[in-house]
Design goal:
alpha+beta; five-stranded antiparallel sheet; eight-stranded antiparallel sheet; Alpha-Beta Plaits; 450 residues; 14 helices
Length: 450
Amino acid sequence: MAGEPFQSFGLATPPAPNVISAGDGIALLKQRKAKKGALLAYGNGRSYGDSCQNEAGTLVDMRPLARIRAFNAETGVIEAESGALLSDIIAHAAPYGFFPAVVPGTQFVTLGGAIANDVHGKNHHRRGTFGCHVESLTLLRSDGQTYHCSATDNAWLFGATIGGMGLTGLIVSASIRLMRVPSLDIVETATPFRNLGEFFELAEAADMANEYAVAWIDQLAGGHRSGRGLLFTGNHAEHGSHAAWQAGGRFSVPFQPPFNVLNRPFLTVFNAVYRWKKGRSTAPRHVGYQGFFFPLDGVGNWNRLYGPNGLFQHQSVVPENVARQVVPALLAAAKRTGQGSFLTVLKRFGTVRSPALLSFPRPGFTLTLDFPNRGQATLALLKELDRITVEAGGAVNPYKDARMGADIFAASFPKWHRLEAIRDPAFMSSFWARTAKQLEEQGDATQAAE
């Protein structure tokens, strides 16, 4: 696993002090011996923030619980234990012509993690979130009971567990519905745009015509080049490979550099080369699914390049009617501080609703920025990005966060208290402790004062 053992992928938060095996965690729950706030499931450590950490408690390592239990080659429904990686599911189903309907930017996330974070991909406009394709799940809670959950069976737990950040109990296994595809290969088209105005003109038509659409922004470009980038669209090739292959072994960052390698001079050169290489031809081209969906999976431990202090990722979503003003404002705020984002991604969310009680994607445009952790300067920038986002009626992604305030979480997710009401009392995360629990304590204090 990348980074320190049982640490978030952003490497900006301390590693977990206490870890137990999945077997021990299951035994503790079945015996009803789990203490209040003591546990949290840990998948493969690909969360950027502290939603996968429980600083005051114990993590349950779910990775050994990784069997694929059943697969229906006619319907594409696959059942697996929650520690199975998406890469395992892809490898199992690909020869039969199936692929996950929704994948995030890495295939090295666990099934349980994908559900708990209700991850999204490049085709939200067509398929919604990962949770839209969960048929059922098995949940173990601290009352010692195992719950079979679906849209019709324990539906209250089903909706709360999808996107519930692992707080409703231990996801033991799940069944998901895969998508039939003609091949794993992608026909990709790269369309350059000179500014954000051009991107917004292209975005809706790109979504209507393609399964996948996402834009890369040259965040460092200034003057008349500000907001330039590339719009990538893609569809599964009618004729191509059905063979899955593992990435991650070709290149790797073998140790933690003592400084941030992804500095401004490097990013300036990288952006210029990337834009030239990817945008030199606008003709459709066949690409492998790994390069299209999971480009960074080919570089092991790439998060180490941000240096010993790690990175913060900021992802926001803003309503479509204000995006033309707000997205440039977010990019301008980062540029004013001189902090460059290695990966700057912009895409359009659609209207497909998730079954989740809490879910980040909603109609509008979502912008993702990655920043090296430079201490207070970076935290101040992120706070400003939060402010711009919520004042525009948008939301900040909690699943990737390591520092947002309780007020920002409440503004982004005003129904947070509904998850708190269903949360298993034995489960807690560092994120929930510093946001929802603070909000609850503030509410109790207000009531007491009245």
